[in-house]
Design brief:
The protein is α/β, with parallel strands linked by helices. It is built from 20 helices and 14 strands. The structure holds adenosine monophosphate (AMP).
């Protein structure tokens, strides 16, 4: 190290008396640069360092490498690996058994928060691994509680996960069971379309986790099939979607049925008692409409907002093609597109049940093995349909967005929006059925002039995702101005901005 550095005074100007000040400054700057360069050269990348050697700068690079950003106070450091996660040996073994070699970015960011009983608002894309990001801290929390036995089973489960649709709830159940079975934690799902009495019976037999759709769980609470007297861990998955579907009163009713005495103090986060159990609330939402904000204000305490990538952004693994078509061209184009697919496998989204029936019948006549899922089908039919597609008995799944929301099938390489979804959020959710778990995918959308109310948002989305904008869309007037009918679009797309008030 240079002598000037060693001898540098700590106070005042930092310059020595009796020497030319300009020369001193030049020398000092030159040496500063050399030092920094040398320091960089010898400094290793964070991935080559042990945890104890990580400096603030390493953490900054780490967060940038994984596109993790936080808003909130006293944010715990993310975890780099499962070994450093702070999860118990049993849970790490469970993770290993399900084959998750490295944590995904949302898991790196959110698991340490849950382990510290912090409230979390997560903004992460579809297929990001967010389920395990809330399930693992939930299982860690439950593992330290007394086992469910005859003594406490009447007080209800320890944790509740709410999801907007049956499909998503069942999928969360599957992911939770995958991990929970290794630690002996019992999971029950409560969704519509199945016998409520049977579900009530299962819960009364005792379970630690309930995964539910809000309507059905509220019903069970009202009929006293379930109580939530010892539930202190709650997850609201796809909260924006639950609000869109009109579930706000049910969600509020469920949250109010939990012990409020365990809510963290509203303004006094500093004084949290480490030994006490507080209610932990995880909320995942791609956008932040007013109803979600209301929930966050009322039930979350000093939350940390974690964003992976940009809010509302489409997963980078998905290539988006948008084709401007006339209505009469849609079916011939769809067939040509399907014929060209190597695996001849795709999910085709339509906006109406009528359209779903028309598309599936026409494709069937052309020799495709098609299965259909929409709101008029019973829960059982929808599950059979999905299973048939998952197991490749059918190569085409024709579905409405609601029926297929949250569906996670890894090897779907192509999604086709036969109809452009009515909002950009639905579009994001539809195309998010491909490009999952790190795989690449393609989404093709047929756009007609009737879809002009989403032209503006779609053009923005394609531009932000660096996908080509068809010339007819680019030059259409409706793509140049934000439609007046969606005044809150900017805050929805950058949803976390409006949550600044919540984070200290
Ligand atoms: P999710 O976003 O929770 O729907 O997860 C998408 C898919 O990724 C699910 O099928 C998970 O089983 C899978 N997954 C979750 N975490 C990991 C991980 N760390 N490594 C590999 N796959 C994962």
């Amino acid at each position: 190290m240079n002598v000037l550095y060693q001898a540098k005074p700590l106070f005042g100007t930092g310059l020595w008396a009796g020497m030319d000040r300009i020369e001193q400054k030049k020398f000092s700057v030159k040496n500063e640069k050399q030092f920094t360069k040398k320091d960089r050269r010898v400094d290793r990348h964070w991935s080559e360092k042990i945890l104890g050697d990580m400096k603030e700068r390493d953490w900054t690079i780490f967060r940038e490498d994984f596109d993790i950003s936080y808003r909130g106070s006293k944010v715990p450091k993310p975890m780099r690996t499962w070994v450093e996660s702070g999860l118990s040996y049993e849970l790490r073994k469970a993770v290993d058994r399900v084959g998750y070699r490295t944590p995904s970015p949302i898991q790196m960011a959110a698991i340490p928060l849950g382990l510290q009983q912090r409230d979390v608002i997560g903004v992460a894309g579809t297929g990001s691994g967010k389920t395990a990001a809330f399930v693992l801290p939930m299982l860690a929390y439950i593992s330290i509680l007394p086992p469910i036995s005859e003594l406490n089973e009447v007080e209800g489960p320890y944790a509740v996960v709410l999801a907007p649709t049956r499909e998503l709830a069942l999928q969360i159940e599957e992911e939770t069971v995958k991990l929970a079975r290794y630690v002996g934690i019992k999971v029950v799902s409560i969704v519509g379309g199945q016998s409520i009495e049977e579900q009530g019976f299962k819960i009364r037999q005792g379970c630690q986790v309930v995964i539910a759709t809000p309507g059905r769980l509220k019903d069970c609470l009202e009929r006293r099939y379930v109580v939530l007297n010892q539930c202190n861990y709650v997850v609201l998955d796809e909260a924006d979607r639950m609000m869109d579907m009109g579930f706000e009163p049910q969600v509020v009713g469920i949250l109010d049925a939990m012990p409020s005495s365990n809510l963290k103090p509203e303004n006094d986060y500093e004084d949290l008692d480490e030994k006490r159990i507080y209610r932990t609330t995880y909320m995942f939402s791609a956008t932040m409409p007013a109803a979600v904000e209301r929930l966050a204000r009322k039930y979350l305490r000093n939350p940390i907002v974690v964003t992976i990538g940009t809010a509302g952004k489409v997963n980078d693994c998905i290539t988006q093609h948008v084709i401007m078509v006339k209505e009469s061209e849609e079916m011939p184009r769809l067939k040509r597109l399907l014929d060209r697919l190597v695996d001849k496998r795709a999910i085709v989204f339509v906006n109406t049940k009528k359209s779903a029936d028309f598309v599936s019948k026409t494709l069937e006549k052309s020799g495709y093995h098609v299965t259909t899922s929409h709101g008029d089908k019973s829960q059982e039919q929808r599950e059979i349909s999905l299973e048939g597609f998952r197991t490749k008995r059918f190569n085409i799944l024709v579905a409405t967005e609601v029926a297929a929301r949250g569906i996670d099938i890894h090897d779907v390489t192509h999604v086709i929006n036969y109809d452009m979804p009515g909002t950009i959020d639905s579009y994001t959710h539809c195309i998010g059925r491909t490009g999952r778990a790190g795989k690449t995918g393609t989404a093709t959308t047929f756009l007609t002039l009737d879809d002009s109310n989403v032209f503006y948002d779609l053009k923005q989305m394609l531009t932000e995702s660096k996908c080509s904008v068809p010339p007819e869309l680019a030059r259409h007037d409706a793509s140049k101005f934000k439609p007046g009918s969606i005044p809150d679009r900017p805050s929805r797309r950058n949803g976390t901005d409006s949550l600044r008030f919540l984070c200290k």
